[in-house]
Write a structure and sequence with these properties.
- This protein is of the alpha+beta class.
- It has seven helices and eight strands, in the order ααβββαβαβααβββα.
- The protein has helices at 2-29, 33-44, 85-92, 110-121, 143-152, 154-157, 197-202, and strands at residues 45-50, 57-58, 64-76, 103-105, 126-136, 162-167, 180-183, 191-192.
- Strands 2, 3, 4, 5 and 8 form a five-stranded mixed beta sheet that branches. Strands 1-6-7 form a three-stranded antiparallel beta sheet.
- The radius of gyration is 29 Å and the shape is flat.
- The N and C termini lie far apart (110 Å).
């Protein structure tokens, strides 16, 4: 009799455990799946900013006075050593060296970016960085005047940055196929001044 009771209890426990396991599996595959997927995205992905291009300052003859110039540059990351330079030099078709700011190359062509992205994803100690610089076509002593104009017309000139999301691989590099646009950037508007570039220099 005792043996029978023990068997019934054992089968009862196993039955309850099986029901709980099935319910848990159903929950994870159903209602909880979206939450776990979101959590996985948070752990394995990142959000980034797509910088908006600032509008141009033009003189009254539509000659650019100040404008944004965007480019990609290549940076050395921890793990870089002189032996890495040869592989980069082969891709860039020129000798390379790292300066104090860890920059290897300042202006990459689209073809170079594509090739270097493959190295970066493979864990090579480099990083491609987008950089946007404000170019001002006046002499140094007139730059403060341009800065004042930039501040005066900032509401027109400044744009709105965009946002994107991308998943990361095991080297913490972006997986291009997972790139998702969250919000498109809106570039700033141009401003036409009522004076010429020559008049600015003559002030």
């Amino acid at each position: 009799m005792r043996l029978l009771i023990r068997r019934v209890l054992l089968w009862g426990v196993l039955f309850v455990w099986a029901v709980v396991a099935l319910c848990r599996a159903a929950y994870l595959a159903g209602p909880a799946r979206a939450g776990h997927m979101r959590q996985a995205d948070i752990l394995a992905g990142r959000e980034g900013v797509i910088p908006a291009i600032r509008g141009r300052l033009l003189d009254r003859n539509s000659v650019p006075v100040a404008w944004d110039e965007a480019h990609f540059e290549l940076l050395a990351t921890p793990g870089w050593d002189p032996g890495c330079a040869q592989e980069i030099a082969t891709i860039l078709q020129r000798p390379v060296e790292v300066d104090e700011s860890r920059i290897i190359a300042h202006r990459l062509t689209p073809e170079e970016v594509v090739k270097l992205e493959e190295l970066e994803r493979a864990g090579f100690p480099v990083r491609i960085r987008y950089r946007c610089e404000r170019i001002v076509a006046v002499s140094a002593d007139k730059r403060n005047f341009i800065i004042q104009l930039e501040a005066k017309y900032d509401d027109i000139l400044h744009g709105r940055d965009g946002r994107y999301r991308v998943l990361l691989d095991r080297y913490q590099s972006d997986i291009p196929e997972s790139w998702q646009l969250l919000e498109a950037p809106e570039n700033g508007g141009d401003v036409v001044l009522d004076i010429s570039l020559e008049e600015i220099e003559a002030r």
